[in-house]
Amino acid sequence: MKNGMKLTALLMALVMTLCACGTKGNESTASAAPGTSTEAPGKSTEAPATTAAEKTGPDDSKNVKIGVLVSDVTSAEALAFRAYYEEYIQKQYNVTFMYSDELADAAAEASAIDNFIANNCKAIISFASADRPAQIETCESNGVYYAVATGTLTDEQYETYKNYKYYVGAIGPDLMTEYMAGYDMAKYYLDQGFTKFGMFGGATPYYTEMHIYRAAGMLVAMCEAGKGTYLGASDMGGMIGAIYGAGCQLTPAKIGSVELCGYVGGYDFDDAWFGKLAAVANDPNVEVLLAVGSGQTAFAGFKQASQKLGDIDCYTADSVKLMESGTLNYLAGKFSASIGPIFMAVLSAVQGHPIRNAEGNAFAIGQGYWVATSAEEAKEYYAVDSSKTEPAYTRNMLDKLYNASYSDFEAFVKAYSFEEIKGLAK
Amino acid sequence: MENEKKIRKENVKAAVFRFAPLGGLILLFGIFMALAVIKDINIPYSFKNIVNQSVVVVVAATGAVFIYTLGSFDISLGASLCVSALIGAMAYNATKSLPVMLLTCVGVAVLISLTSSVLASVFNLPVFVTTIAMLSLLSALALVLIGANGTGDVIQVPAAAVRGINNVWFKLIILAVYLGMCVFLFDFMKLGRREKFQGGNPVCAKLTGLNGKRLAIAAFAIAGVGVGLGAFLTITYAPTLSRNTASSVGMDIIISIVFGGMPVSGGARSKIYSAVIGALSMTMLNQIMLALSLDSGVGQIVKAIIFLLVVSISMSNSKGNILPR
User: Fold this and answer.
1) Is residue A106 part of a domain?
2) Which chain B residue shows the shortest CA-CA distance from A16?
3) B50/chain A closest Cα distance in angstroms
4) By CB atoms within 10 Å of each CB, which of A114, A151, A156, B73 scores lowest?
5) Could you read off the pLDDT of B24-68 as tens digits, one per residue?
6) Residues B232 and B110 sit within 8 Å (Cβ to Cβ)
């Protein structure tokens, strides 16, 4: 009897969970379909739904299912990107986004792509990079459009895949942009006369290129200011080679008149890791803490009042608060709507109007960060970035990219600074 | 008369419990097919997908049933699979030979498994304790291997090299051969009966002259072969390997075995088919969640509830006073 009751309770919990989720799922799908009673309020006011016959913009008459590959589902950046697609784009266009679970490795990516194809997704936008060539090959052989968001292919990969019919292209910070983000942040403090630094290298020990290039930028800026070398290198190419040569394990060192007093890499999140971060921040010599990413998680809790903190991350309510309190002083951040143009390129391709460059190949366009050095700037950026009705790229702006020429598309994407986007909106 | 009724009722109840995992799988399949029709899912591609997503866990978990039958478990199987795959990929890159890669994967996995069980014998520890130590050791070894290979954060086998064998039929043949071997050993040989006896009552087993340590070594060796084949199939499906390769496989093996109706305590009620039924059920459930567009967090909650439900049913059936025959 008791067992029966326990089983009944479990079954009821399961049924209730499934019912709740089923309702949620239906709402999500319904909201994506224009013209229904659950249509988003903002849709009719901003841009009326177009039909195939008008041919002036995206065809909203048929729902387009798009798969989104994500290697990270919990970071502030990942959540902001998802919110832009699900809470703005999905309500503006007749599209349904299907998200993968957190993808830890290449096999998980392959499974997620197979799931999307089985569920009739017409395109895949990828935020996961464990094995991009395999992703592109699978999409090409199954006739599914594929695009890279917030990143780019390596030169070698681009040469291989640029003429694939279903490879749409990539928009995001290229490696040069990453390098310059690190360089500019370090230079900002060096120009103010600071010479003692502590650094958090993020995923540098795991050979993550994005973080390696940012770290290299910081170190080259230090070499230039201190008139010294680090691992025997002082320019971009040499520094990147030196970092790889050291197995991506960086160590504190004197760089001429500048000093890297402390360094921590990796994302161990254990007591020892936090202990090392605290030791770097508590070093009385360290004037500035620099992070290639996640600096707010790594250093904000340990930082001394007299120290400065610079980070390359994204705009969130927490980062704005930290800037207001003076804990964070420099933020080069991605903005959530930066993934708007790649969505429009994908939609345009699915609806028969692929955007190709002058040679007829897939595009690769660099896109940078919004840099805030004061709380006022950060607040202004965040207000736009977090808006669900008037984000940085609205439907009106994105519609102009539908079936656009490559030069127009490229000019739009490259005008990514906050002021330029404000200008585009007008 | 009343006794007969009672016995018949008990027999029906036992049969229901015995076939509950299979019934669950058939039910999930039915739900999936209904959803596939309603939601216009590509059914042939989905079947291929289900094989691709479950075959590694089925192969590795089928071998692990031998360990679970002894009432023990191995928490390091996922890490072992990762290291075997990494070394297998390095072997391929050195020799350009797929058979060498296969043999290396299996050899390394068996060696790791044997190390766990032999260490347990030498130090007279429960085997699962040594597997916890092995988990840390193998995770560190994966990082060392990737670093030593000098190719960034991954070790890759050229996709073209495995494209020819990355098909459903090849995977099903490997699965059928290994499953056939395990069924033969488990259900038709002394080894299987002894393992069940050892898991059900180690004291009696010892008193009747069974060597528990030898049985453990045999079980771990068979599981090692499964892990090695799983490593080979992992490379076949996704030839770019990193420190995160197979990171979820260890847990998936445990869930699949329990989900398939295997008693957590091992013993006479252990079934070699548990892993197949469990892994297929889990994959089918994932496909259903996906078709329903459930948020991954909600999906995990649903899975957890179903998991508890299955374990409850399994436990309620094994609380009798009479030993199973």
Assistant:
1) yes
2) B302
3) 9
4) A156
5) 899 999 999 999 999 889 999 999 999 999 999 999 999 999 999
6) no
Give the number of other Cβ atoms within 10 Å of residue A42's Cβ: 16
Q: Is A324 on the interface with B (CB under 8 A)?
A: no
Which strands make up the sheet holding A370-372, listed edge to edge?
A253-255, A258-264, A196-200, A288-291, A308-314, A330-334, A370-372
Task: Give, to the nearest 10 degrees, the angle between helix B43-69 and helix B249-259.
Answer: 80
Report the alpha-carbon distance of residue A93 to residue A398 in Å, rounded: 11
Residues 77-106 of B with CB under 8 A from A: none
Q: Among residues B1, B22, B60, which one has the least CA distance to residue B223?
A: B60
DSSP string covering A148-208: EES----HHHHHHHTT-TTEEEEEE--HHHHHHHHHHHHHHHHTTT--EEEEE-TTGGGT-
Query: What tens digit of pLDDT does each residue of A316-366 get?
Result: 888 899 999 989 999 999 888 999 999 999 999 999 999 999 999 999 999
B149 CB-contact burial (10 Å; exposed 0-12 / middle 13-18 / buried 19+): middle
Q: Kindly state whether residues A200 and A327 are assigned to the same domain.
A: yes
Cβ-Cβ contacts under 8 Å, B241 against chain A: 105-106
**Structural domain harbouring A205:** 176-334
End-to-end CA separation in angstroms for chain B: 24
User: Chain A contacts of B296, Cβ < 8 Å?
Assistant: 73, 99, 101-102
Q: Which two tokens stand for residue A184?
A: 């500019």
Which residues from chain A sit within 8 angstroms of residue B40, using beta carbons? 120
Cβ of B43: how many Cβ atoms within 10 Å? 13
Candidates B142, B235, B154, B159; CA nearest to A209 is B154
Contact yes or no for A225/A190 (Cβ under 8 A): yes
Of A367, A10, A364, A34, the closest CA to residue A173 belongs to: A367
In this complex, is the C-beta atom of A207 within 8 Å of any C-beta atom belonging to chain B?
yes
Phi-psi map region of A278: left, alpha, beta (phi>0 left; psi -120 to 50 alpha): alpha
Region B138-165: what's the mean pLDDT? 86
Q: In which residue are the tokens 């060539």 written?
A: A133
Is residue A327 domain-shared with residue A353, that is, in the same domain?
Answer: no
Query: Is the CB of residue B245 less than 8 Å from the CB of residue B232?
Result: no
% of chain B surpassing 90 pLDDT: 53
A277 and A356 belong to one structural domain: no
Q: Which domains does chain B have, with CATH numbers?
A: 51-317 (1.10.3470)
- CATH number for the domain spanning A163: value is 3.40.50.2300
Give the 3-state secondary structure of residue A370: strand
pLDDT of B93 > 90? The answer is yes
Contacts of A137 (CB under 8 A, 6+ apart): B159
